[in-house]
Design a protein that fits this description.
This protein is of the alpha/beta class. Helix content is 37%, strand content 22%. The chain is built from 4 helices and 7 strands. The strands form 2 sheets. A 5-stranded mixed beta sheet has the order 1-2-4-6-7, sandwiched between helices. α1 packs parallel to α2 and α2 runs parallel beside α3. The chain starts with a strand and ends in a 13-residue tail after the last helix.
Length: 133
């Protein structure tokens, strides 16, 4: 089953928005990484801005490790900004970041979308791919 989210290519990054109450589970995250790989290949893009509100996490340490390994298979030197307001960034989150970083993937958690965009290095006024020229 594919996870439901809205995704939009914005010239230099892919902006992903999950519905409120998104639950991070091993199956959900595996499906998401597959979909990210497809979008990255389609748009030849290695930058993702992911937004989700009221995120819940139901994974353990080994599943976080597996997720960090799988995100690195999406494409070389991937960069992922995770904007989860009010998310409790903890040791498991840090572990995931470390696993991904050790495989040349930059991942960081943010509370604020503008800070996430700045870290991602994308123009805040980026023109969306579906805007008229």
């Amino acid at each position: 089953m594919s996870e439901k989210f809205n995704a939009e290519f914005c010239d230099s990054y892919i902006h992903v928005k999950h519905s409120p109450g998104f639950v991070i589970t091993p199956g959900a995250i595996e499906n998401i990484w597959v979909q990210f790989a497809e979008m990255g290949a389609k748009y030849e893009c290695g930058k993702f801005l992911v937004e989700a509100r009221e995120v819940k996490r139901e994974i353990n340490t080994m599943q976080a490790f597996d997720s960090g390994v799988k995100v690195s298979a999406i494409r070389p030197r991937l960069t992922v900004a995770l904007c989860f307001p009010n998310y409790k960034h903890d040791k498991l989150s840090e572990f995931f970041i470390t696993v991904a970083h050790n495989r040349e993937v930059n991942v960081k958690f943010f509370d604020n979308i503008e800070t996430a965009k700045k870290w991602l290095g994308v123009d805040q006024a980026a023109k969306h791919s579906d805007d008229p020229a």
